[in-house]
Specification:
Strand content: over 45%
Largest sheet: 7 strands, mixed
Structural class: mainly beta
Order of helices and strands: EEEEEEEEEEE
Low-confidence stretches: none
Helix content: under 10%
Number of strands: 11
Mean pLDDT: 96
Radius of gyration: 13 Å
Distance between the termini: 37 Å
Oligomer: single chain
Number of helices: 0
Length: 122
Amino acid sequence: VQLQASGGGLVQAGGSLRLSCVASGRTFSSYYMAWFRQAPGKERKFVARISYSGGISYYSDSVKGRFTIARDNAKNTVYLRMNSLKPEDTAVYYCAADLRGGNSRESEYAYWGQGTQVTVSS
């Protein structure tokens, strides 16, 4: 599967953005999807993940209550809605996919998008 992320940009603290990740290739609903992010000079970290049908989602503590992950299998797309953004949310955001599910470790995801930059100004 090939993944293409988009939707990043510059936003003021307290603002919102919605990231999208479009998948092509094998049946999208066969993939467990996730978002990760990497801040400058730091390791890439888990943000959110969503089950094959979209019924189950899980978030890192740092974004819980502010971010929402969703998917539309008919459109081969996973989304990350980000509200109440903070300067510490500034990072490159990556979507990831794997046929196996239920994992938040970067090493467990075989397929990655190219990343989209999110910058939150104070």
